[in-house]
Amino acid sequence: MYKRQRIAAPIPHSVEDLELNASNIKTLSDKNFLFYDSGPEPERIVMFATRENLDFRTMSSIWLADGTFKTVPTLFTQLYIIHCLGGGPNPFANGHLHPCIYALLPK
Questions:
Q1: Which of 45, 52, 58, 48 is nearest to 26 (CA)?
Q2: Which of 13, 26, 52, 56 is deepest in the core (most CB within 10 A)?
Q3: How is the chain split into domains, by residue range?
């Protein structure tokens, strides 16, 4: 009889139980994506961004932000996204809004 190996971490029931390892949280192009984690506490804040997104944010003179309470993981209350307007020296951005930072905010 074969025993199935457990690959995924157990499903957390609170933000304190949530285990985040920055080296395992990457984009499809293998770039680090976990930007900030306030740690295992009830009012935990987790933010996601790539180094390129943060650099792009510093080049942008216009930021727009929006949050949603509807589409968010159950352990959190709000998903807040900071968008940056492209332009200037960044050729891939020219006049388009790009989501730069994603934040999961506590209950």
A1: 48
A2: 56
A3: 37-105
